[in-house]
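wait is this the right file?? whatever heres the structure
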């Protein structure tokens, strides 16, 4: 009984942290978002994970998220193999898969309006021997200094990374400074990104 109460308290705390962080992100001015996105792009372009990668898995920014479009375009210019997520329903449970992208114009509104590939191109297949040349850039709603991350509540990235231990070591989650909090109650199944960067 005590354990159930603690779990419910943690769930409520996580929900409230997510709500407050997303509200704060939504209040950022266009200039604040532009400046943060530029800083993020510069930092990631100079990061060893990016310049050492042949395969780049990236989220496509939507709404008030930190902007990844310039980063994706630069990866394409550098002839990296770029894959972006699409939510599929091969069963009753939605699942996130990554599909090859060759230009941003291929994206169309998908799950909850988020820009997605059609799903008719090459699908990313995890191979442990390729993980050292692969880099995954993750979004999030809330982050803390211990690299805990809250997504948007569906567990897509936790589920995607669960059976990919070598790729877990090549992940960076990015967001704005207003999304950083003192502590997030962690729970079983949460996968910490290797690094968190907020701008």
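ok assuming it is, sequence goes like this
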């Amino acid at each position: 009984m005590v354990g159930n109460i603690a779990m419910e308290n943690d769930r409520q705390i996580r929900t409230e942290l997510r709500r407050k962080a997303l509200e704060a992100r939504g209040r950022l001015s266009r200039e604040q978002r532009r400046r943060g996105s530029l800083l993020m792009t510069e930092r990631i372009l100079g990061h060893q994970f990016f310049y050492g990668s042949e395969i780049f898995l990236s989220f496509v920014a939507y709404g008030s998220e930190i902007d990844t479009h310039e980063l994706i375009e630069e990866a394409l210019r550098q002839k990296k193999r770029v894959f972006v997520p699409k939510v599929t329903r091969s069963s009753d449970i939605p699942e996130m898969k990554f599909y090859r992208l060759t230009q941003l114009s291929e994206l169309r509104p998908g799950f909850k309006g988020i820009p997605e590939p059609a799903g008719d191109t090459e699908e990313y297949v995890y191979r442990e021997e390729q993980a050292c040349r692969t880099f995954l850039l993750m979004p999030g709603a809330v982050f803390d200094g211990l690299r805990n991350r809250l997504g948007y509540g569906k567990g897509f990235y936790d589920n995607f990374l669960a059976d990919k231990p070598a790729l877990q070591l090549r992940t960076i989650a990015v967001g704005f400074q207003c999304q950083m909090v003192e502590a997030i109650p962690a729970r079983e199944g949460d996968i910490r990104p290797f690094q968190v960067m907020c701008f």
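The mean pLDDT is 94. so i think its the right one actually
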